[in-house]
Amino acid sequence: MRRIVNKIRPDGTRAIPLAAPVRSGLTEGMEQENDLDPVSLTHLRQVSGTGPVTCRVHVQVDQCVEKQTSQGAPYYELRLADSGGSQTWRVFDGNPVFAEVRQLQRGNFIEIAAQWVAAGKYGLEPRHPRLRPLTEAEKQALLGGDAELVTRQREDFATIETLTGALIDPRLRGLCRLFLEKHGARFRRSGAARENHHARRGGLVEHVAQMMRSACAIATVYPQLNRDLLLTGVLFHDCGKLWENSYPEVGFAMPYQLHGELVGHIPLGMELVNKLWRELLDSPEAAEWTMLEPASDLVRLHLLHLVAAHHGELEYGSPVLPKTPEAVALHYVDNLDAKMEMLRRGYETSQQLAPGIFERFRPWATHVVEPLAAMPPASPAE
Asked: Which of 21, 104, 130, 279 has the smallest count of CB within 10 Å of its CB?
């Protein structure tokens, strides 16, 4: 496939090849965009801060909702998704593709070829867009996911398997193994949230793996923590999201599910823990656990408390406040990782109001400031 490099378009936009480093490009107009590889939404956001860019994106329509402006004019709000996340696009009635967008349905796979510009609070906006449905081969390539993200999530899942497989308590180790065996595939395609953090296919695996790494570090500083219980709590704290924020086997459009809407992920997680625990106690190895201390039912009860209390406050959905050291630690590890991911996304997608100051993004409560770079380590000669 021909690459377009080293020049700027007459209209000031740039053409982006995907596999190569971002470079300038020249085409005689939008008609030559097919010479460019499609880019991911993540890659597009990373390069859009330096000016308009011309490229193609392959996405799935996660949402297409008709709305009205304050003056009563119709427009469509689309949420576009790929393996790395989502992007909102508002299409007003003056847009040349308005009639085409009206025909879109949730789950459609499309290409958008456009000049992408930063549009303030509306994020990235495609100018002069052209739409077409993806071919079957293009659809399968998109479903394969961004190679870097796929590798990271595979490594994160291996981390979860390794850490839970090394637990000392055979009951907690067996419970984690049973969960990964029975629900591992669904776990690997679930998001950690619908919007705020790790809101992508496989995001829950990323969230849990990073929380486990944090929990291991904290357990070395606070040796009074029950490390096995804490790590198991990390694995199960959001397990109800497998029925609240799970993606289909093929697709990036997260459906709404009745169990998640009517019950919520905390009660669903507690129910799953109880169900798997009963299965575990029916296994042949459980006969050897009758004399273990602490008693099995007490271990189960403490694990249920971690799932129930991990939001930390009654107003945030936890039915009970954290009442054990492990419950407190789990809540803060969860909150910390969610906020670190929100900041990462904010730096990636928000507009700069001034050098080093980024516009407030939802749900963050204020502007954010570029972090201070760490000094490099001194050389041995120094």
From this structure: 21
pLDDT tens-place string over residues 326-336: 999 999 999 99
Beta bridge partners of 246: 190
Beta-carbon count within 10 A of 215 CB? 21
| 207: Cβ contacts below 8 Å, ≥ 6 apart | 192, 197, 198, 238, 337, 338, 341
CA torsion sign for 230, 185, 179, 173 is negative
Query: In this predicted model, what pLDDT tens digit does every residue of 4-43 receive, in sequence order?
Result: 332 333 444 444 443 333 333 323 344 455 557 788 888 8
> Which segments within the chain are labelled E, that is strand?
14-15, 53-68, 74-82, 85-92, 109-118, 124-133, 352-354, 357-358, 368-369
According to DSSP, the residues that pair with 224 across neighbouring strands are: none
Report residue 233 as tokens: 């709590």
Residue 264 buriedness (CB in 10 A; 0-12 / 13-18 / 19+): middle
Which residue in 158, 169, 108, 96 sits closest to 138, CA to CA? 108
DSSP type of residue 123? -
DSSP, collapsed to helix, strand or coil, labels residue 53 as: strand
Q: Scanning the structure block, which residue is given the tokens 């823990």? A: 273
Task: With CA atoms as reference, report the closest residue to 113 among 2, 195, 27, 1.
Answer: 27
Widest CA span of the chain, in angstroms? 78
Instruction: Say how far apart CA 119 and CA 330 lie, in whole Å.
Output: 38
**Torsion angle defined by CA atoms of residues 182, 188, 192 and 197, in that order, rounded to the nearest 10 degrees:** 170
Report the DSSP pairing between strands 74-82 and 352-354. unpaired
Neighbours of 94 (CB within 10 A): 8
pLDDT value, residue 14: 42
Q: Tokens 């796929």 sit at which residue? A: 150
